[in-house]
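Sample entry (64 residues):
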Amino acid sequence: MSAIRIAVTVVSAAVAASRHPVVKAGMRAVVNNPKARDTALAVTRGAAYKAGVVARMIVGQRLR
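Predicted structure, serialized as tokens:
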């Protein structure tokens, strides 16, 4: 499976999950709580950084 197909699948799943009513309610609860909002931002940034590291590893291997 190509990296692009995996990325499309992950994004599609994230969009579908974000539309779920329980997820929306949880997001509203986090937005209203400053401490939870800061924690959510830190976790999201960490996950994005790790995803970038993995993507660079995959792309780096394919270009060699």
